Amino acid sequence: MTTDDTAPRSLLDLTFAELEREFVTAGLPPRHAQSFWRVLHHGLCQDFSAAVDFPPPLRRWVAEQVGEGRRFFVEALTAMTDIASGDGQTRKFLLHLADGQSVETVVMGFKNRHTACLSTQVGCAMGCVFCATGQMGFVRHLRPGEIVAQVRHAQRALRADGDEGLRNLVLMGMGEPLHNYDAVMTALETISDRRGLNLGPSRITISTVGVVPGILRLAAEQRPYRLAVSLHGATEQERSALVPASQRWPLAELMAACRTYFTKTGRRIFFEWTLIAGTNDSPAQAKRLAGLLIGLDAHVNLIPLNPTGGFTGIATPSTPVRAFQKTLQLAGIPSTVRQRRGIDVAAGCGQLRSTRLRAERLPSVTV
Ligand code: SAH
Ligand code: SF4
Fold first, then answer.
1. Centroid of ligand 1 to alpha carbon of 196 (angstroms)
2. Quick one: CA dihedral 7, 10, 11, 17, positive or negative?
3. 75 is an active site residue
4. How far is the C-alpha of 199 from the C-alpha of 197, rounded, in Å?
5. 131 is catalytic
6. In this structure, which topology does domain 9-73 adopt according to CATH?
7. Ligand nearest to the CA of 136
8. Looking at domain 78-345, which CATH architecture does it have?
9. Cα 243 to ligand 2 centroid, rounded to whole Å
10. Whose CA is nearest to atom 4 of ligand 1?
């Protein structure tokens, strides 16, 4: 992230209010901000030299301010890799960032009902043992524009296929969204803005490993997005073995934060549980999980482990998955079994990037 005021800025980093301020400072009527925003975010415009129906003062501003060597630019992320899974339901992009780093964006689902899975950081500092992103360590936060640009890339790819575009977004790609709170909130404001990309806040899910201050802030600020909390263990000892971040924000504190969130917002919380054979998939563990969730409006997403290079565990087979689910059901806790889609395109979190780093023999990154 740059602190140099003279460095060119990505227009995708700006909220609508910031753009409007820019226009007012430049002596343009604020309504021009609406027209410009619409072409930028609704029209997914990349090259403004073609936006000929702008009024002359706006066209002049664009000519003076936007483009190579000027104050603003519109970033485009190019796909280093673009692969579709054999079943045609998952398309995975490894997107190239301006500094040579890369992030993964996945588009899943059926026609006109697609969900995009976005990254919020390059790598991740949280170190969950089974996660390919955790295994690569933290490199850097993404800027808001780099998060918005992933949505634009996915929208463009879908529209090119004759699709209406995205229905849902999940922040479940590389990185921990609440460790990059401000950039993520700015990006989501832009993504959900009705004048532009217009993805409704109730169709956007933020998934967190359990960053307690972030959860409390979401509640205090009454952010309108859905919240998913990755648990994976229902005792401190079992959780910490899989999720080192639990030592910083212990399970008891995390559950207290979830209760505060529920009291303040009245919203359902989704809990994610990666099922690892013989580790966290017994009926007794399901019972303990149900016990943790009493009094919350909770829904559990069960995700059989997607194998990664740095972890020897294997996925829970379908019979114990069903038994786990049954135990939750008897305790009154609804759950869904979700596959991490497209294992054949390395669609687990961070897997495509690690595969590519290995293939190119680039040094992998460390914290
Ligand atoms: N950092 C956030 C969001 C990104 S990870 C979080 O941890 O919630 C999104 C989800 O994928 C998390 O629930 C995570 O535990 C899960 N996950 C990561 N690697 C996985 C793997 N190899 N198999 C199954 N689930 C995995
Ligand atoms: Fe980070 Fe989430 Fe992976 Fe854990 S599961 S290492 S928090 S991206």
1. 29
2. negative
3. no
4. 6
5. no
6. DNA polymerase; domain 1 (1.10.150)
7. 2
8. Alpha-Beta Barrel (3.20)
9. 8
10. 172
Write the pLDDT tens digit of every residue in 48-59: 877 668 999 999
pLDDT tens digit sequence for 23-46? 999 999 989 999 999 999 999 999
Q: Which of 104, 176, 238, 272 is catalytic?
A: 104
Residue extents of the structural domains in the chain: 9-73, 78-345
- 123 forms beta bridges with 138
Residue nearest to atom 8 of ligand 2 (CA): 175
Tell which atom from ligand 1 comes closest to the C-alpha of 350: 19
pLDDT in tens, 186-244: 999 999 999 999 999 999 999 999 999 999 999 999 999 999 999 999 999 999 999 99
Start-end of H helices in the chain: 16-25, 31-37, 56-65, 132-136, 144-160, 181-192, 212-220, 236-242, 251-265, 283-292, 318-330, 351-360
> Which ligand sits closest to the CA of 232?
1
